[in-house]
Write a structure and sequence with these properties.
alpha/beta; 15 strands; Rossmann fold
């Protein structure tokens, strides 16, 4: 397995487009001044020994040298052994509401968009805990089984949108019941469920489901995304808003945050309810609650024995740098004598 000891150094590669732009501007400026100097044919005769292609070749070599040096600076490392490593942590499942009401924009950019950003930051702060993701609307589905692979968790999170479940609704109870089946192990500890929704539950008895889940040792936290005053649900087509969702009478539907239901679910789950705002998503407080839970030990298979491989990239960069220094900007008279395509005129004695 390949990894970088200092992946933040790879951001230096973003300088390559800037370097390319400077080179193009330099070539353009040079040609502009040469035109002022004289006619093109006359300048070409005066600069007969100057090669047009070699500066470009040298620049390309310089770019590759720069890229290799940046990669070497980030220190690529190769894992040589796959071992089971013991960790202690909590199994955390995120149940995310993906119903149409989560497209309301009272939380920017949308309730769902902000929730995904918050979950992504939570994943970044996890250390030894395992995480799973459940999505729900009218039904509930496992988006990501419990895993210690945080990169996979962020990848699966990025694919979530409000169209992922065709059946509309907000079946919080179904999400809780699915979470109860999704935890690994039979112990009644070390389990946390974080429900992110606007709380408009119309499908089942979520409070009763939370009570049963807590009897199995699952701590349930709820985070409410939305406004109690309600907000319309925009309808988009080809990236442009065309209307708001309306009821059968033609009235604009307002989706309201149901704090009372979410407070009851958290109370039955022995957890905490937090209302998210544009300035505070509440997940940091939930994370502190999870950090205080009793940990359990579990094994995770991962690559160990990482060895540095920066020297290969550094060596290749030095080789290209040496090659670049050996290329002059003058034309090679011997190469000019080569006529590969028979296009040069033959001298007549």
């Amino acid at each position: 397995m390949l990894r970088f000891a200092h992946p933040e150094h790879l951001y230096a590669l973003l300088a390559i487009p800037l370097i390319l732009l400077v080179f193009i501007l330099a070539v353009y400026t040079r040609r502009k001044y040469l035109k002022r100097f004289g006619e093109a044919k006359l300048v070409a005769k005066l600069m007969k020994s100057h090669s047009k292609s070699k500066p470009i070749v040298r620049f390309i070599l310089f770019i590759f040298t720069f890229a290799l040096l940046v990669v070497a600076w980030a220190n690529p490392q190769l894992g040589t052994r796959l071992e089971e490593v013991k960790r202690e942590g909590v199994d955390v499942i995120i149940a995310l509401d993906v119903s149409n009401s989560m497209n309301a924009e009272d939380i920017r950019p949308t309730r769902l968009g902000r929730a995904k950003q918050s979950i992504s930051r939570l994943i970044d702060q996890l250390e030894n805990d395992r995480i799973g993701i459940i999505v729900f609307a009218g039904n509930a589905y496992v988006q990501l089984p419990i895993t210690a692979d945080y990169a996979a968790a962020k990848l699966f999170l990025s694919t979530i949108d409000s169209d992922i479940i065709p059946t509309q609704g907000t079946a919080i109870g179904s999400a809780i019941e699915l979470a109860m089946k999704s935890y690994v192990g039979q112990d009644n500890k070390h389990k946390a469920l974080v429900i992110i929704t606007d709380g408009e539950n119309h499908e089942d008895d979520a409070v009763e489901a939370a009570k049963k889940a807590n009897e199995e040792g699952i701590i349930i936290h709820t985070i409410g995304f939305g406004s109690p005053d309600g907000a319309p649900i925009p309808v988009y087509r080809n990236g442009a808003q065309i209307d708001f969702i309306k009821d059968k009478d033609g009235n604009t539907v307002l989706t309201k945050l149901d704090e009372l239901t979410l407070e009851k679910i958290a109370a039955e789950g022995k957890g905490q309810y937090i209302r998210a705002t544009n300035s505070d998503d509440g997940l940091s407080r939930i994370l502190s609650q999870i950090a205080g839970m009793e940990k359990k030990s579990f094994g995770v298979k991962q690559f160990t024995g990482f060895e540095d491989r920066f020297q290969y990239f550094l060596g290749a960069a030095l080789l290209l740098l040496l090659l670049e220094s050996l290329i002059s900007q003058r034309r090679n008279p011997r190469m000019d004598k080569i006529d590969l395509f028979g296009e040069k005129e033959k001298k007549i004695d």
